[in-house]
């Protein structure tokens, strides 16, 4: 799976993508991530000043990201994509809700995913129309840019790729899991009180343990 990220702040991704499971997946060439900065496709009037936004037509607060720099960045990405199983995603609070089912389907359907990370008041709507991009939401809230949602998609989709987690059983959605997990010590002493691991988890009875986990999941809902 190859992710192509359109962003004016590529450095935001550095620490997250270089560490832990995702960093290892990149190193092992299970996933590939490339960045395209819209500012690189703008002719600035001054050194280091390459505007990619402008005032919105019709008035209103803030600025809107211009279509042309983004379209040029996507065009460069598309030239590097050899396959035809491509998905272009733009992030929007009003978009289709992203979930595990979407992540699973993406691994089966696509080899390349283009993620457009908007900023400010959003992106000129003509980008979606021209690219036929799908609007995706990662939750019922608003964040300051598309970079965090992009990281969420990369993480969730990458987990579904064979070899990224090491074992298939590591996928929580493929086993009975619960909202509570415990490890050693069996009895945790804290401020004069003893906090014990539930007895069922020490029983060795996997049927009872699974039932306990399922009950916790039902209560959480």
Structure notes:
With 221 residues, the protein is of the alpha/beta class. It folds into two domains: 2-168, Alpha/beta knot (3-Layer(aba) Sandwich); 176-220, Trp Operon Repressor, Chain A (Orthogonal Bundle), CATH 1.10.1270. It has seven helices and nine strands. The chain has helices at 14-17, 20-27, 67-80, 100-109, 126-131, 147-159, 206-220, and strands at residues 2-6, 32-36, 53-54, 64-65, 86-97, 112-116, 134-137, 187-190, 193-196. The strands form three sheets. It has a five-stranded parallel sheet with strand order 2-1-6-5-7. A two-stranded antiparallel ribbon has the order 3-4. It has a two-stranded antiparallel ribbon with strand order 8-9. The longest helix has 15 residues, at 206-220. The two termini are 33 Å apart.
Mean pLDDT: 92
Total number of strands: 9
Element-by-element helix/strand order: EHHEEEHEHEHEHEEH
Query: How many domain modules?
Result: 2
Low-confidence stretches: none
Q: What is the helix content?
A: 25-40%
* Structure class: alpha/beta
Shape: elongated
Strand % is: 15-25%
Instruction: Report the radius of gyration as a whole number of Å.
Output: 22 Å
Note the total helix count: 7
Q: Briefly, what CATH class of the largest domain?
A: Alpha Beta
| Oligomer type | single chain
CATH architecture of the largest domain: 3-Layer(aba) Sandwich
The largest pleated sheet is described as: 5 strands, parallel
């Amino acid at each position: 799976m190859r992710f192509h990220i359109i962003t004016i702040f590529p450095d935001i991704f550095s620490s997250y993508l270089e560490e832990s499971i995702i960093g290892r997946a990149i190193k092992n060439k299970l996933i590939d991530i490339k960045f395209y900065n819209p500012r690189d496709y703008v002719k600035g009037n001054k050194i280091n000043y390459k505007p990619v936004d402008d005032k919105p037509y019709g008035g209103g607060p803030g600025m809107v990201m211009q279509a042309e720099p983004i379209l040029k960045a996507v065009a460069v990405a598309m030239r590097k994509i050899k396959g035809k199983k491509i998905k272009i995603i733009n992030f929007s609070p009003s978009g289709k809700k992203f979930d595990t089912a979407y992540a699973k389907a993406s691994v089966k359907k696509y080899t390349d995913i283009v993620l457009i990370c908007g900023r400010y008041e959003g992106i000129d709507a003509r980008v979606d129309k021209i690219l036929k991009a799908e609007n995706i939401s990662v939750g019922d809230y608003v964040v300051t840019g598309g970079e965090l949602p992009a990281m969420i998609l990369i993480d969730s989709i990458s987990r579904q790729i064979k070899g990224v987690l090491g074992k298939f059983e590591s996928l929580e959605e493929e086993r009975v899991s619960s909202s509570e997990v415990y490890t050693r010590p069996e009895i945790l002493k804290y401020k004069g009180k003893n906090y014990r691991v539930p007895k069922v988890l020490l029983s060795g009875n996997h049927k009872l343990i699974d039932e306990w986990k399922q009950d916790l999941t039902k209560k959480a809902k």
